[in-house]
Fold EAL domain-containing protein.
Amino acid sequence: AKGAGRNRFSYFTPALQVAALNRMRLTNDLRGAIKGQQLRVYFQPIVHLGTGRIHKAEALVRWQHPQRGLVSPLEFIPLAESSGLIVEIGEWVFKESARWARQWRGEHHPEFQVSVNQSPLEFQREGQGYEHWFAHLRDIGLEGSAMVVEITEGLLLDASSGVTDKLLQLRDAGVQVALDDFGTGYSSLSYLNKFDIDYLKIDRSFIRNLAPQSSDMALSEAIIVMAHKLGLRVVAEGVETAEQCALLLRAGCDYGQGYLFSPPLPAEDFDAMLRSPLVL
Ligand code: C2E
Ligand code: CA
Ligand code: CA
Ligand code: CA
């Protein structure tokens, strides 16, 4: 009878419930992953298009799961957010990134920058600012200007004083701010003036079908012109082909990031790439 009950249970288990269970398991595993050192920070080069030199890198977290293999951040970042684990993960990514930024400033380029992603939940967390980040930077002897924080448009729409205060706090410490996935949110251009943003990252959905005379080309050109007039620099995301790169360069885009240059790499491999000249 017991066995039949179990069968009946699984028969009636809706797919949603299975998905929820799966998420719960993965969230539990994630807790262990932080302690068990299964997380890695990968770095993807951000290339100065005018010179072809690597001026910056974006830190992207990876999870090497003992059974499932590499789990995409698209899958586990949402779990980390809903469970609050994102704060711990973000701290760790920041410290790893700062350590490498210091090394690359010393050995490669004195103005090298590493950018870290901050989900809205991390950015807005109650009662805590970025003081402990700044303390860490002081401890390791790194200028704030070595770091960039990537946030998304949604944060600026909900323009609470908390958001404004944190942006000011970052600016005072010299940390720069990039607006990620630009063009995909509920774009209200007025906030570009209102907040102190340093970089716009054009979302890769605009870059994917970039071709002369295309509407995405027109949009990208308009974004670049507008950003420059407002004193912002522009990074194009998801640059995969030499043609896209040429079009962006011609449109005056400052930086490119994407598989054309390199996928995100383990820190040691990124370090090795910096030591050898980049062949485009
Ligand atoms: P994102 O911030 O927009 O990061 C760019 C994503 O595009 C990365 O995916 C990167 O691997 C991918 N990408 C780079 N170049 C190309 C290209 O040429 N073509 C294509 N198709 N894709 C490209 P990834 O690493 O899977 O990260 C996904 C998202 O997860 C990130 O999107 C970011 O929102 C989030 N994420 C990653 N690491 C962190 C983190 O440490 N903290 C937080 N809060 N979020 C993170
Ligand atoms: Ca990003
Ligand atoms: Ca992005
Ligand atoms: Ca994103």
Observations:
- The chain has 13 helices and ten strands.
